Structures
1.
Amino acid sequence: MENHFSTTWSDIVIYASQKQSDGVKLFLTRYVLQATIYSIWRERNARKHGDTKTPSEVLFRNIDRLVKNKIMSLTSPHVQRFATAYQVWIGAVP
C-alpha cells in the first residue's frame, strides 16, 4: 500500500485483486477502492442532476470519513484481526 501508485485502472484492479500476506492492508486497499468508486459515482450523479462541482479536498475528506466509519463499525469478535486497521489507516493518510 505504501509504495504502490498507479493511475491506470487495470493496474489498480490487479493490485486490489492480489492476495497479500497482511489482511489489514488488503482490506484497506479494497475498501478504499470501493469508497473511491462510490464517491466518484455520487459526484457524477450529483453533477448530472445539476449540483455544482465538489472540490477534490472535500471528496478526499468524504472518502477518509467513509473508511474511518467502516473501520469503527468492525466490532464483532470475528473481525478482531482488523483491530490495527485504524492505526494503519491513520499512518497512510497525510
2.
Amino acid sequence: SLIGPHLLQVALLLPGKGEEPEVLLTQLPFQVKAPAGLNLRLWFSLGAALVSFVLAGYALRVRYLRPPLETAPFNLLDLPWLSRMMRSPWWQPLLQAPFLLGFGLIIWLGLVDTPESSRNLSTLLMWTLWWAGVIFTFVLAGRFWCVMCPIGAAAEWTSRLSGAERQLPRRLRTLWPATALFFLLTWADGYWGIVRSPYVTAWILAAFFAAAIAMGALFARRTFCRYVCPIGGVIGLYSMIAPVELRPKSLEVCRGDADKFCYTGCEQGRGCPMFEFPQKMDSNAYCFYCGECLKTCARENLALRFRAAGKDLWTMASRRLDEAFLAVAMVAVAGMAAGHMVAPWHGWMEALTSWLPWAGLKDHALADKLTYTAVFWASAVLVPLIVYGAGSLAWRLTGRPEKTSPYKLFVRFGYAFVPLGLAMHLAHNLPHLFLEGPLAVPVFQKTVNLFTPWFIGAPDYNPSPWLEVPVLQLLQTLVLLAALLYSLYAACRLSFAQWGARTFSLRGPWPYLALILLITLANLYLLNLPMGGRHG
C-alpha cells in the first residue's frame, strides 16, 4: 500500500562552469494518509448493496407477473418546434460545427502548447471534461453525442462527396473491430499514459479524423461510426439505458410501405447513415437522432417518445455475441480503470510481479507495465469466461434444456451487465469531472493570455472543486446501487422470458444475480480506497 511516509528525491541538472553540468539533489518528505472514515463508508456501502439486493429480489418476485400498463406514450415530435428542428437541413451542421472547432483546437494546442497535461487545455478538454461528461449523455439521450461528433461528420461528408456506395464485407460488419480498438486504446493509456500527454492526444485525435475521412472516401454512409469507431460500440450499448427512443408508430404502416425511403433515401432526405431500418429497429444501439428518416417518411410514421429506461436490454429480439461480449468485457475494463487510479494499485502490482516471469528485471517500470498488460488482458478474457460459467451453471440448474445452451445464455444475459458497466464508468469519472474539471478554468485563462491579445486575469491553479469529496463518494455509491438494481431487474426480466416464473423462483437466474452482486461489492470496495488524479 502507498499509505505511509515517503521520501521524494529530485535531481536537477544545472549549467556548470565547466563542460559537465552540475547536479543538484534534494529530498522532499511527504506522507500519504488514508481518508478519514474509510471503513465506515465502506461498510455502509456494502450493507446498502446487500439490502438493495434483498429488496430487489422481493419486489421483482412479488410484482413482476402483474401485466404492464398499456398507455399511449407522448410523441415528442408532436411539439412543432422540435419536429421542425429535427427535420431542418441545419439540424446536424449547427450541432457539429462547434465541436469541429473544439476538436481542431484540441489538436492544435496539443501540438504547440506545454507538454504538461495539467497546464494544457487540450488534455483537460479531451479527457477530463469531454470523456467524463459525455458518458452522462448516454444515460439521458442515447447516442445523441454522435449527431454532434465532428469525426463522424467528417466521415459522412467525405462519403457524400465521394459518392461511395461500397459496404464492408459481411464478416466485418460487427463490433469486433471497434471493440479491439477500444481495448487497445484503454490498454495503451494504462501502459503509456495517453491522457497525460497532450502531444499523443493530439495525434490520436488527428489519426481518427484521417481514418474517418479515408473510410468515408471508400465506403458508404457512416461505415466508420457503425463498425470501426472505438467508442461507437460502447456508446451503442450504454444508449440502451436511455429513457427516450425513436421508433415507428405502427409496424403495419411500415410493412405496407413498399418504398422504404427511410433506408434508401429520396429527394427529401438521405437513407439512414448508420444502415438502420426503422421497421426492424428494436434498440437504441445505432440510432443517433440524425432526423433523416423523419424527412424521408412520407407517412410520418415515426415517433420520438419516452420509455422505460433500459427497456432494450430485455425486449429486443436481435441479440449478438459481439454486443454481449462487449457488455461483459466493459465491466472488466471499467474495473481496471477504477483499480488503476487507487493508491494501493502500485503495491498490488509489485506483489503480483514477484510471482511472474519478469520479476527479476532491473527496469522496475517495465516490469510494472508488463504486469499491468497481463492483468488487463487477463481480466478482459476472464470476466466474460466467468459470466459464461454462470450461464453454464444456470443451464445445469434448469435441467439442461435442449433448446438452449451456455452459449445462448451468454448472448442473452450478457446485456444484463450493461447498467453495471455504465455505472462503473460514471462512478469512476465523477472525481475526474468534479475535482479535476475546475482546473480547466485557470488553464483556459492561461491559454487565452498566451495565444491571444487579451488578458482575462491571472490564473489560480488551485481552484475549489465543483463538488466536495464526501458528496462525490455518496454519488458514487448511489450510482453503483442504482446499477445493481437495474442489472438485477434486467437479469430477472431476461430470466422470466427464458424460463418462466417457476424456474425463476427455484433456480434460473441465481448465478447471474450472485455474480452481479459480487461485482458491485468489489467496485464499492475499490471506490472507497484513496484515489489519485490524472493531471498534475
3.
Amino acid sequence: MFIATNRLFVPADRADEFEAKFRDNMRTYLPGVPGLRRSTLLRPTSPDQPYVSLNEFDTEADFRAWVASDSFREAHARNKGIARHVTGNAVETFEHSEDLVLIAS
C-alpha cells in the first residue's frame, strides 16, 4: 500500500466552506480512480494544526498515474474554490509498514 498525505493549512474562519468544497470534490473526482482504496479528510483538533488529506493507493504507480490524470487536474483547479481557503500545504508520501488492529469485544 502507498499513502499520500497533504497537510492543508486553513484559517479557522474559512474551515466550514473549505470542508464543504473539499467534500464535494472528493465525491465528484475520486470515485473510480484506479488503485485508490480510501480517501480521508482529517479535521484538526486545534486551530494551529492543518487539515490532513490522506489517500491510500494500492501502489505508488497508481498514485503517480492519478497525479498525472485529467481528474486530478480538474479536482485541483483553482476555480474549484478550495485553493482560496488554503494558506499553505505540504505533501508527504509513505509506504505501508505495519498494521495493528484492535477490536474491543
4.
Amino acid sequence: MFSKTKRLLEVTVIFNKSNTFGLQNDATLLQRSLAGLARVRFADPLEPPVTSDVNIHLETPIYTYVPWSNYNVFIANPEHYLKESYEPYMKHFDIVITKEDLQIQGAHILPWSLLPFPKTKVTPVKEFLYLLGGSQNKRKAAKELLSVWKPSYPVINVYSIEPLENNKVQQSNINYIVKNLTQEERHTLLQKYQGHVAVSFSEGFGYTAAEAEYVNAYTILNTIPIYLQDYKESKNVAWLQTPTLKNNHLYPYGSFVSDFSSVEEDLEKAIQGFENYKSSVSNTEFKQLYFKKRLIEILDTLPKTYIQKPKLPPILNVEDCPPISIITLMYNRRKFFDLACHNIMISDYPKDKIEWILVEDSDNPNEDSSDKIISTAEQSKPLEIIYLPLKKKTPISEKRNLGVMKAKNDIVLFMDDDDHYPITSFRRRVAWLTLHRMKAKATVCTTIACYDLKKGISAVNSPPLNLPLGQRISEATLTCYKSWFLERMFDKTVHIGEGDSLIKGRESDVMEIPPQQILVAFSHGNNVSSRRIPSNDSVEPSCFWGFPQEYLKFIHSLANVSLILN
C-alpha cells in the first residue's frame, strides 16, 4: 500500500519531544527514509491529535492518537516496553516493529540505523571515549567498568549529564566530564578519539555503538543481544562477556546484564587489541540503505483499505442525536447542584433526548439536595430527571453502578457535579462512541484540563503513560453502552480510581479521546479525585479557560471564594 499510493501520504511520528537525542534521531531517520513517499510531521503525546494516513508511535503507544489515523504502527523498545500497560492496546495497531527479534507474535524485525553526519579529516588521539548522556543503563555499566579500569590503561574520557558515584572517577587516566553536549560537540568528540566504549546494561538500539562504527573507531562492547545482532561480524569490536537475563517483570522483553563480575580478563584483551588496532571499513552506509528498504517493505504490508485520511473529529448533528442517560453522583454538596444544572442547560444536546439520573447519599441535612432536585424535576420537561436517593453513605463505585442500572437508554454518560462540561461535550462524546470506525464500546479521556477554584490556577493533568489505561482514565468523562457496562460493573467496594476494575482486560473495547471541549475538572478542597494541580505560593492566577466573568464569580463562590475582577 505505502509505496504504491498515488498521492503523498500524511504520516505522524509520535514521541516524547523532550528526548532531544535518541527519539529525536529516530523520528528524523524515519522522516528522511520516507522522503518522496510521505509528508512526515512530528507530534508530542501532549499535543492535540490531527488526522493522518499513518501514525508511527515511537517506544510508547499513545492511545489518544490511535483513532486519528487510518493505520497505526508501533515501534517497540524492549528496555522500555511495559507489557502489562501496552499489550492491551496492540489490537488497534496494524503493525508492530522491533529492532531485534523479541519473539513477539506477528512483529516485523527492522535492524535500526543512525543518521549520517559530516566527517572531518582529523587524526584521532589514542584514547577512549565513553558517552553516557542521560542513559541510566550506561551509567550503571560505567560504574562497573570504571572500577576495573587500571591506571596503566589508556585515558578514557567519559561524558555524562550528571555526576557518577564512583571513587575511580578521580583516577588520573579517567576524565569524567559533566556536560550536556550539543550535536556539533558530540560529532567532534566521536571523531577525536580512536577508541570508543559503548558498554551498557541494556539497549534498544545503542546510538553510541552505531556512531563508533560510523567513524571506524575501535569499540569495546558487551554481549547484550542487540549488540550481538548488529556487530557480531565487525572487525572493529572487542567483546566483554556479560550474561543477560529477561528477568524484569516490568519490562519482560528487555535483556538486562545479570553478571558483570568477570569482565576484567576480556577488558585486558580489549586494551591489548587497541594497542595494535588498525581501522577497517565499516558497513554503516549499507545498514542505512537496508533500513530504508526494509522500512518501506514493512509499511507496504498495510492493506489499501482507505483512500483518504479520516475526517475527524466525528460530527453528530443535533437532529441525529440518540437518547442518552447522564449519571451524576451527589454527596453533601448542595451548592454544586446549581453547577450540574448549568452544565445540563447549556448543553446543545436535545433536552428531549436526555434522561438525567441523580444518585445522592448525603448524610448532612444541611447539604442534602433532595428538595432542589425534586423542584427542578417538576419543571424540567422535556428533560427527564430521575432522582435516586440512598439511605446511607455508599462507595462512589456502587453509586455509579446503581445509576447505570437505573438508566433506560443504552448510551450512558457520567457527569460529575463539580466539573464544567462545555456546550458540545455530550454531543462530542456520543459522536466518538457511535460514529467512529473503531466501533468502541466506551470512550474516555485520560488527559484533562483542570482549574483550582481556591487559587485561580489552571493546569493540564496527564497521568503517567506507564500506567495501565484503567488507572489513567477520568471516570467523569466515561461514555459507554449500558449493555457493555453491565457485563462487568465497577468494583462496588472502591472509593477512588474505580475505573481500573471496569476496564482491566477490556482495554481494546475502549477509545481514548482528546480532552478539548469535553471537561474542565474543578479543584475546590473537597474533591475525592486523585488529580491535583501542582502549585506553590509563587504561582499567579492565570488561564481561566475562556470563562465569562459572571461564570467565574459563580464557580468561585462554590468554593467560598469571592472574586474581584477589573
